[in-house]
Write a structure and sequence with these properties.
12 helices
Length: about 290
Amino acid sequence: MTDRNQEHNFKNHSMEYNNSRPRTWIGKLLTAIAFTLLGIALLPLGLVITYVIYKGASRFNLALFTELPPAALQEGGGIANAIVGTLVLVGIAALIAIPIGVLAGIYLSEFSSRKVYGFISFMNNVLSGVPSIIMGVFAYGVIVLTTNTYSAYAGGFALAILMLPIVVRTTYEALQIVPQEVRWASAGVGASNFHTVLKIVLPAALPAILTGTTLAVARAAGETAPLLFTVLFTQFWPQDLIGPYPSLSVLIYRYATVPYQAQNELAWAASLILVLLILLTSIISRWATRKSIY
């Protein structure tokens, strides 16, 4: 019996690694086609990143991160105020969007009825499809016209609306990854639904939730249109949160269209900083998900 099983396994092993079989060749051909198409899909991204690095790396120095933008026809300078402004704007947006989005995602996944889930999920999908410039017009009408001034609050509000559907969706998907058996086991030992979500489900889904929030932050950092309606731009250090505020995306938009070489070079350097910022957030999200439980 043992010899027969060994012979059978040997035949299966030979069949599995037989390169002459048409099935093996078709598999290799399809794998090659898949890798080729993947390379074609990634080619534009690689070319864009390469060109941005080529144009922006020449201005990478200490002054870029410590000095203000120069006036027209002047050399040197940096974009330190825009870097600080972007961090402040994204920070305000994160303070608004992340708590609301995470709580909404938890409610949809763990506590809502099917009818409520269907309605909120539909509205969240609609919100995620609204163009960013419309968000800027909405924030302009709600914040700027009410306060009669452009401000970092208005910009952060506009970016928060853009981040919100991403945070809600990723939080919901992260909680759905946790197996239902875990919830049943917690309920079996007498834990309430609230304690099961708070002590068991939420900690298990936390790495995936962190991934969604970092991706939302990366998107907010690169948005330009909402900030054109809410914060405008200034070449000086931000004094407070009221009034025009500097940001990297608006700096790129403005300096890329002026006929001055120094400003054009700063626009390329700011583009490279934004790419590095998105790359950094992606690395953080990957580092967080490697500790995922499920």
